[in-house]
Amino acid sequence: MAKQKEKSQDEPFEQLFSELEATVAKLEAGDLSLDESLALFQRGMELSKKCGALLDHAELRIKELVPQANGEIDAEEFEAGE
């Protein structure tokens, strides 16, 4: 189980998002059994949480370049909504 957890942490956002899109498309097609639909829905929720966590982590890493009075540029934490 630990290996599966490590593997999922190494998966890039694009790969996870692509799988999420494919999962949603299969669910929207509507030609699945109830059990298949529930399994895909559960997988879609897991993928959505992973993608959200990766996006949150990326947002924390974003810095805003701010010019200072002395002409230098400093990197400060970016705050959305400003």
What does this structure look like?
With 82 residues, the chain is α+β, with helices and mostly antiparallel strands. The chain has a single domain (2-77), classed as Helix Hairpins, CATH 1.10.287. It has three helices and two strands; from the N terminus they run H-H-H-E-E. It has helices at residues 2-10, 13-29, 34-61; strands at residues 63-67, 73-77. Strands 1-2 form a two-stranded antiparallel ribbon. Strand 1 (63-67) and strand 2 (73-77) form a beta hairpin. The chain starts with a helix and ends in a 5-residue tail after the last strand.
Which whole number gives the mean pLDDT?
A: 83
Percent of residues in helices: 55-70%
Give the helix tally: 3
The total of beta strands comes to: 2
Furnish the topology, listing elements before pairings.
Blueprint: H1 2-10, H2 13-29, H3 34-61, E1 63-67, E2 73-77
Antiparallel strand pairs: 1-2
